[in-house]
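Researcher: We're teaching a course module on how sequence relates to structure. For the next exercise, students receive a sequence and then see the predicted structure as tokens, so they can try to spot secondary structure elements on their own. Here is the exercise chain.
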Amino acid sequence: MNKPLNTPSDAFLSGLRDLLGPKGVVESDDSARFLEEPRGQYHGHAALIARPADTGQVAEIVRRAAIERVGVVPYGGGTGLVGGQLLEPAAGPPPIVLSLERMKNVRDVSVADAALTVEAGVTVKAAQEAAEGAGLLFPLSYGSEGTAQIGGALATNAGGVQVLRYGNTRDLVLGLEAVMPDGTVLNGLKTLRKDNTGFDIRHLLIGSEGALGVVTAATLRLFAQPKRRETAFLKLAEHRVAPTALRALQAVVGEQVTAFELMSETGLGFVMEKIEGARMPLADRSGWHALVEVSGGDGLRDALETALGEAFEQGWVVDAVLAESEAQRQELWRLREEMPIANRMIGAVCSHDVSVPISKLCDFIDAADAALAAAFPGLRVNCFGHLGDGNLHYNAFPPAGEERAAWRDRAQAISRIVHDQTHAFGGSFSAEHGVGRLKPGDLERYGDPAKVAAIRSIKAALDPLGIMNPGAVVAIGEAPK
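Model: And here is the predicted structure for the students to work with:
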């Protein structure tokens, strides 16, 4: 076992207050938002909530924390769903919560390099807007983009709705600036596409969930703005035709397919019930639907209509509507983007962020549905997500009329069934939300032993004191001495 972390002394905290000044510290009256996550499942504690203004202050905070052996929990937009942004009181002494929200400068936009350099506190939405201002596209996009920050997005390797075309967050990062666990600064803000100079520390830090360092800035890859976007909402004959319909669409439209989102009858029903103003674009809500978007140059609509015509002829698609304006496009996307909000309003027993090979995705849905129905009759499932990259959000809800609280003691057993089925089909129990403090046990259960051992060794090598986001990814006390 590692030596336990220390409770910050009054002298240590006073020194940080002097370093940061009044604007750099969040006082108790405003601290609540840093100590709860969106679903309210975790409640953290902190000795101090620090708001550094620049990378130098971040480095000094971490350097002092290493000397005193005090935990540091990096905090971005707070939108993470696996408890990675807070430390509960039972898990250890109160840490320093390190909010990057003041570090929101756009340092550089290079049209020639198709690159954008921003600080960690810049929101995903603000990064999109900075790229757009230069006539380019930063494609990372998901429902919480107005709140989620670039530092957190990189730390969790967040996915989103355009992975199908542009890749995960790590595929969008050219360079990285980060503070390492001893307080030294990794100065890696480059626009290079090729740099084979030893181990790629950038990709080690991306997805490390703050357990190996603090991302303070990044150089992001940009793309040409598409001239046109075409969006369609499809009623599928059944969920099993979805992968075939996607491949047929790609055969006509090619790499211009930007998103292919699968939605179930249950999920759309939740949106209709809970989201004010939401409207179904098709008369029949039963069965399975898909939201499809293609983006590119001229002739795109004709290509989409050609592909959909083939899908109708083959019986894969039984009804469809195409957006005729940007307002209609936004209305269609609202059905997908507000589904997580509707889920929270209904109240899930447990939620799962899984991925499986696209070739096995429909088999997984059938097997998981059958296993849960056998073990927990009446349980409702909302399965939806990014079919184009095999990422499903498979969420379980109590039977209609029953309260979530009555099912709380069955949540672990439900999740075990879902994750067992995911593993059986060669999938991952965490597709885009990370491990956090919710899933270290799942990493032990389902992870490849060699990979788990390597994760522990890397954590011990880079953070031998165990101060960085203690308990995230690697359970406290697990890393070797």
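Model: If you want an answer key for the exercise: The mean pLDDT is 94. The CA atoms of residues 302 and 418 lie 41 Å apart.
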